[in-house]
Amino acid sequence: MGAADVPIRGRSIVSTITQGMDQQYSDSSRLAARARLHGFGRAEVPWFTWVAQQIPMQQQGGSVLDVGCGPAWFWPEAAPVLTSGIELTLFDQSPGMVTEALARCSLLPFTSLKGQTGDAAHLPFADGSFDVVIAMHMMYHVADQEGAMAEFHRVLTPGGALVVTTNGRENMRELYRLTTVFGSAPHDPSAESFDLDRAQALMRAAFGNVTLAIHPDIMDVTDPETVFLALTSYPPGDRAPPEQQQTFRTAIENALAAGGGRINVTKQVGLLASRKLA
Fold it and tell me: Which residues of 92-105 are buried (b: 16+ CB within 10 A; e: fewer)?
């Protein structure tokens, strides 16, 4: 299926990874469990650095809105890559995330730094407020994705850029197949509501243009506990009964044994960019 074939409206799929968001994202602990898994990646250029390299910044910085900023792990790695003079606004629905993000970014060399909470589909900013809007791996949490895209377009300056990252359905397929013991689908749960195809369709509809780049990476996973903690950090694995969780542990151990102590994991993670036409 191509981006042009993806239905834009009338889609109400809710990913398991978006359930219980108040509990999941009150702080960064569950995100950290998932992030540790990506430490097994073998990309030549690390993910955050690679994303920063793709962001179309002005030579003298500009105003940037990071929507769904989470704990702002991106910015310590990205700041040295980007131009100076950035006015950064960190935005998330979770007050705990914004507090952590502001603390993490406070010592970085931004011209100005602000934090605010709210809904991505109802941004509390004036038209044309930002030169760049970034939405990294967060759109699958948004119920009104069309509304959020319209808001991103509204708050950008003419010629400004939207940068979105998300996963494809094939991302980490070798690991997600193991989660079927919980009754989960054998693919990336975030892709159920916002995969690369849907991202392209929504961005093209809102902006009239979109480009896609795939981060070149694979993972060689060797630690079963890291896999277990990452894939039980969200429903239904986090609520599974002990016997089901033990079955999952056994499935991980069997996969490692079959691979000689490692699981070769496919990565399908992309960055999409659109320009607001003047």
Answer: bbbeebbbbbbebb
Amino acid identity for residue 138 in this structure: M
Q: How many CB atoms lie within 10 A of CB 36?
A: 15
Taking alpha carbons only, the member of 124, 141, 69 closest to residue 99 is 69
Taking alpha carbons only, the member of 181, 262, 250 closest to residue 220 is: 262
Tell how far CA 32 is from the center of its chain.
Answer: 13
Under DSSP, the state recorded for 111 is S
Distances (CA, A) of 122 to 73, 87, 187: 24, 21, 30
Tokens standing for residue 7: 């239905």
pTM above 0.85, yes or no: yes
| pLDDT one-digit tens code per residue, 90-148 | 999 999 999 999 999 999 999 999 999 999 999 999 999 999 999 999 999 999 999 99
Per-domain boundaries in the chain: 3-169+191-218+267-275
Q: Residue 64's closest CA among 28, 101, 114, 99?
A: 114
**Homologous superfamily in CATH for domain 3-169+191-218+267-275:** Vaccinia Virus protein VP39 (3.40.50.150)
Where is 162: in which H helix or E strand?
A: strand 156-167
The H-assigned helical ranges of 156-267 are 173-176, 196-207, 224-231, 242-258
